[in-house]
């Protein structure tokens, strides 16, 4: 049974590319809370720690290029939230935002200097997001980003989040 959130929060599925860090934290949170999960991952289920474990219901893209899975996850979602510890995006996280803009998909960047669970919840409700793409740095670049993702998702799904 999926975790019930505040009225108006209609997220039915969380997708990501399965990389370590923000991606896996989002998938783990969805699994733990009974929310459907999925997304695209590179051919060979590539990630920095080897093959992405089969417990994550991801579909391989034709290419092993990370950019293809990033684009397909943005394309196949209603909106994207990028979590990072750094206030400025770089690498794949910056590409995610650029692709969201190019494809006309809503995108929100959340970092500790500007982390408001109410803003996350309002972003999702205002846009009636059903499929949410979650992205962010890999664990080798920001080792604590996974814990930040878990903390923010938990708070955003509570009826009265506390920052």
Short descriptors:
163 residues; alpha/beta; Rossmann fold; five-stranded parallel beta sheet; two-stranded parallel sheet; 9 strands; 35% helix; globular
How is this structure best summarized?
By secondary structure, the protein is α/β, with parallel strands linked by helices. Helices cover 35% and strands 17% of the residues.
Commentary on this structure:
Helix content is about 35%, strand content about 15%. With about 160 residues, the chain is α/β, with parallel strands linked by helices. The chain has a domain at about 20-25 and about 35-80 and about 90-110: Rossmann fold (3-Layer(aba) Sandwich). The mean pLDDT is about 95. It has a 5-stranded parallel beta sheet, with helices on both faces. It has a two-stranded parallel sheet with strand order 3-6.
Layout of helices and strands, plus pairs?
Elements: E1 13-15, H1 22-32, E2 36-38, E3 40-41, E4 46-47, E5 50-51, E6 59-60, H2 66-75, E7 79-83, H3 91-103, E8 107-110, H4 117-126, E9 131-135, H5 145-157
Parallel strand pairs: 1-2, 1-9, 3-6, 7-8, 7-9
Antiparallel strand pairs: 4-5
């Amino acid at each position: 049974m999926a975790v019930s959130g505040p009225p108006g929060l209609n997220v039915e599925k969380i997708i990501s590319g399965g990389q370590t860090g923000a991606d896996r934290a989002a998938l783990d949170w969805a699994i733990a809370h009974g929310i459907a999960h999925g997304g695209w991952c590179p051919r060979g289920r590539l990630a920095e720690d080897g093959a992405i474990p089969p417990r994550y219901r991801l579909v391989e893209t034709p290419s092993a290029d990370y950019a293809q899975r990033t684009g397909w996850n943005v394309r196949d979602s209603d909106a994207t939230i990028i979590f990072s510890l750094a206030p400025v995006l770089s690498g794949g996280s910056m590409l995610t935002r650029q692709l969201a803009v190019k494809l006309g998909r809503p995108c929100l960047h959340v970092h500790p200097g500007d982390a408001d669970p109410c803003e996350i919840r309002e972003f999702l409700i205002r846009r009636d997001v059903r499929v949410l793409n979650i992205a962010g740095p890999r664990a080798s670049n920001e080792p604590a980003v996974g814990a930040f993702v878990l903390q923010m998702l938990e708070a955003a799904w509570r009826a009265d989040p506390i920052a």
